[in-house]
Specification:
CATH superfamily of the largest domain in chain A: Jelly Rolls
CATH topology of the largest domain in chain A: Jelly Rolls
Helix content of chain A: 40-55%
Largest sheet of chain A: 4 strands, antiparallel
Oligomer: homodimer
Number of domains of chain A: 2
Number of strands of chain A: 10
């Protein structure tokens, strides 16, 4: 039975540590200030100070940096259960912007809320540090992947990673997942042109590996795709049998 | 007056939060198991499980990933005051390796030590989360820089970033800093050939901007170098006047 109070973040952190009733209650209180945000309007601007962090409970968000020449570089996407701007709330000045891709629900978390929660339960502090470490591991994986993987392996790796992240919050499995990203998002994230993205997706479909259509990613041959991408999910630390 | 017990990590975290006597004592206890490690022998191997984290108190370390094809990709360098493998100790499997560049001194920290320390002082947990967030911000900055900056701006940005990090632990300033990196390290880190690195360093020297010679980086024209690199240190969250 899924309890109503089991937010995606709770599910995610539970993959790292078995939270007690008291810890669950503290985590739940962090979700108090829930708000709805419309697609396309930044939650947090790059360079903004004294902003809050947010816990995303539904919808997808794009985080990006604006370059000196005005172009946008996608850093990552956030899915339910992810923090938005956790590092920014601690680093004072946000080093990137967050834009909801669809209408989202997110709970505002102030630095003081975090301090209070950590004082109440140090295990929760460790769990949140785990989540931050996992985010960093993903960025490192992207950094390494950018120069090394061919465009088709990069695409496959990206969509498999998102699938694993969604599986952690019970929103995806080895069959696939609902995905609101456009081909433009994929192009920005992978450093490819939209035309190139289109061609690669067609190749992957024709090879019987996966299909991305009408807001849904379908893994037609999960193991084949893993092989193409050389996808080893160890860096996501989801050692349980999550994708099944 | 600098107290003997002011380790580089203590100095670094003090830039984020004014630590009380009690918090300093807890932080000091994390430094108990100090060990010396020789250059060139990995502290932590990629894929290793149940490893400890380390607090680096002297010397420099290179963190890298080994690719499926056997090549090495440098992720970052660690300087005194940095954690080695903080995210790995939480993520169970290390996603990268650590190799001392010179003889180093580092204190071993187990996951259980962290939990005990966090239970004693939640403000310390927040400070360590701050340090982890700052590390992530650096990786994001590298990710964005890789495709966007010319080789000379990339080199300048890299050496300025290291300078700012060292300034935080009183090991560098706007004049320069001692640097044990070789041109091969620079080449690996910046995705350039050793010959290319050599040429860029000569150009920067001939332009009167900086000199890298005999294990020392000298900023001949700090502001000029900042301008070339478009270096904005906000992501390092060192809002105090550190470089002076």
């Amino acid at each position: 039975m899924i309890l109503a109070k089991q937010s995606p973040l709770t599910r995610k952190l539970s993959a790292f540590v078995a939270l007690s009733e008291a810890e669950l209650a503290v985590l739940e209180r962090l979700h108090q200030r829930r708000r709805i945000f419309a697609a396309g309007r930044d939650l947090v601007h790059q360079g903004q100070s004294d902003q809050a962090a947010y816990i995303l409970s539904s919808g997808w968000v794009c985080s990006y940096k604006v370059q000196a020449d005005g172009t946008r570089q996608v850093v990552d996407f956030q899915v339910p259960g992810d923090f938005l701007g956790l590092r920014s709330v601690l680093l004072r000045t946000s080093d990137h912007s967050f834009e909801p891709i669809v209408t989202i629900e997110a709970a505002e978390v102030l630095k003081s809320d975090l301090l209070v929660a950590f004082a109440q339960t140090p295990r929760l502090a460790t769990a949140i540090l785990w989540a931050a470490s996992r985010d960093e591991a993903m960025v490192v994986e992207h950094l390494v992947g950018i120069g090394r993987r061919d465009a088709d392996a990069r695409m496959a790796h990206f969509l498999l990673e998102i699938g694993s992240r969604l599986a952690l919050v019970a929103m995806g499995n080895k069959e696939g997942y609902a995905c609101p990203l456009t081909q433009y998002h994929l192009a920005d994230a992978l450093g490819l042109s939209a035309i190139h993205v289109n061609r690669i997706l067609r190749q992957l479909r024709e090879a019987g590996l996966m299909t991305f259509r009408k807001g849904h990613v379908t893994f037609d041959d999960y193991e084949g795709l893993v092989k193409l991408a050389e996808f080893d999910p160890a860096y996501l630390d989801q050692t349980g049998p999550l994708l099944k």
